[in-house]
Amino acid sequence: MSQPRQSRALVIVNTDFHSSDGDAMFGTRKGAKREAEKLSTTLSRLNYEVKLMHNKTAKEIEDLYQQECRCEHGEYFVSIISSHGEEGVIFGCDSEPVKLTRIFQILSSKKCPVLTKIPKIFFIQACRGQEFDQGVVVECDSREREPDGFSDYLSIPPQTVVMFACSPGYVAFLNITGSMFLQALLKVLDGEERHLALNRLMTRINWEVAVCCQARGTYEGCKEMPCFVTNLLQEVFPFSA
């Protein structure tokens, strides 16, 4: 009897950014690489076939999702993106933007029929603006841009869930030990909460970040509020081995 296909996970982490002239851009995202490696190890333990990619340009990021359309997939497809960003955009290591709408378009039923019925789950660690939630840096992963998040929501293809580290218009936080958001994801995946339905698991992450996390130092007292959008039609349990 043949073994079922493994679910796939694509983890993209950008830590160093340069212009076309080779000049350093933004800030180095210390702590992000080790965090991504831990997530990759955890997903592998949960029986995912993981592809971990470090410091990819905007075009290379698009190409990675194009490649997923040619792969054989199991029950789920999970992608974690950790980079500098702004509302609706994440940046390649060449400091060029990649619109989230472009990624979603690549994985749409029309462009990627192999993923049509497979739940696609995104966790995005990147800023979505410049505002600080006074209600977390150390370092912020952002560049200024007018928020336009609603159009991004409309572009999300069927059977897709997207969880953002922060609310529209706000910064996401990162320090040398990692980000509040992905550290909370790691904690949940390493604990018994991994057996929860996805919407409950994400709500648990919301609680973990909003209630248990708080910035220190320069931004003492600042908070972060993750949020997610889903158009799944049924409960799924992607991390319950």
List the helices and strands and how they pair.
Layout: E1 7-13, E2 17-18, E3 24-25, H1 32-45, E4 48-54, H2 58-68, E5 77-82, E6 85-86, E7 89-91, E8 97-99, H3 100-106, E9 120-125, E10 129-131, E11 139-140, H4 149-154, E12 160-164, E13 169-170, E14 173-175, E15 178-179, H5 180-190, H6 198-212, E16 227-230
Parallel strand pairs: 1-4, 1-5, 5-9, 9-12, 10-13
Antiparallel strand pairs: 2-3, 6-7, 7-8, 11-14, 12-16, 14-15
Walk me through the structure.
The protein is an alpha/beta fold. The chain has a single domain, classed as Rossmann fold, CATH 3.40.50.1460. It contains six helices and 16 strands. The strands form five sheets. Strands 4-1-5-9-12-16 form a six-stranded mixed beta sheet, covered by helices on one side. The protein has a three-stranded antiparallel beta sheet with strand order 6-7-8. Strands 11-14-15 form a three-stranded antiparallel beta sheet. A hairpin with a 2-residue loop joins strand 6 and strand 7. Helix 5 packs across helix 6. The longest helix has 15 residues. The chain is globular, with a radius of gyration of 17 Å. The two termini are 20 Å apart.
Write out key terms for the chains shown.
alpha/beta; Caspase-related_regulators; 3-stranded antiparallel beta sheet; Rossmann fold; 6-stranded mixed beta sheet; Pept_C14_p10; 241 residues; single chain
